[in-house]
Amino acid sequence: MSFLPARLAVQTCVLSRRWEDLWCSMPCISIDQQEFDMAASGRFEEFVNSLLMFHKAPSLEMFRFYVTRPYKFEVVSRWFRRGIMCCPAVVEISRSANTHCYGLPHLGPRGCCLRRLHLVAIYLDKTVMQHLSSACPVLEDLELDECFIDHPEISSTTLKHLMVKDYISYSGKVLMIAAPALVSLYLVSNAVQWNWGSVLLNDMPSLVNAKVYFKQDGPSDPPQVPCKILCSLINVRYLELSGLDTLLALHEDPDTFPTFSNFRTLLFNGCDLSDDFQMLACFLNNTPSLEKLTLQYCKLPEDSKKRKRMENPKRISIKCHDTLTFQCPNLKLIEIKYKEEDVHQLFGLLSGIWRNLLKTTIILTKA
């Protein structure tokens, strides 16, 4: 019964007299406003008030709440607070875009059992952010999706999985992440909302997987010095960089480029390789343990598209990138996903670096 949405679970209890009070002790509460008609806001408020008031479980395994339509701030805050008072191990709160921006109540001692916290478009004040460190001693999984963060500092000695996607901070403060036990990190940014130079990652010796996605919905300046982020990811085994200008913005002095000794898998998704692959070579020369490289729909040099449509493919001249040299002795597999118009430039790339890939398997996949 705990796997059912709250309204359906209560309705199910009517089927048997032995079940009629089971909803009062369900270890999981999942409230979704979509289950009620738009005209039934009074019924929804009455249902949620009764459910949370008469629920008797001393603690919850999960508290989930999804708000889809505007409601009074004080009422919704009371519901959130009542659910968190049950010391849930998992909290998932989200709202749709057409509702008010509701805030997460202060956790206090009720966060002692919290292991996973997933929030979508929720406001977090300074006290809530501080409670993530001081009041959540077992927190391991944190996801903040399009949240409004007043004090963008995430600090936790127990956090293992972190996702920060398109967060908004009107204060303009630097996003600081201090999580020494972190295993996986996922950062997503919009070019207009977030400057990578305002992201500070402290030492993360346990970090294994990292994904950095730089979104660019329209013309804008490239992100500033994101190499600061790379220097904090030197211990990862898997790194994924996504976004049109991710690599273009990493142009730094090769002598100061960090060395990634633990890298096993490196993935570039939609990145800019139009510098004749020199930044790609810079990565490969600084990843001595790399075993797998994936290039997925990356931007290639412009000369790859300067050819006539009706020309015989067998007679097309292919430019070889002989200047691309690197030392990557453990590289076993290269996967390239490309578009049809990029095929000739890809073969030019491969013919130029073939001498470095005698023991490497290459898989080409056309979109």
TrEMBL record:
This is F-box/LRR-repeat protein 15/At3g58940/PEG3-like LRR domain-containing protein. PANTHER family: F-BOX DOMAIN-CONTAINING PROTEIN, OS11G0201299 PROTEIN. Residues 113-191 form the F-box/LRR-repeat protein 15/At3g58940/PEG3-like LRR domain.
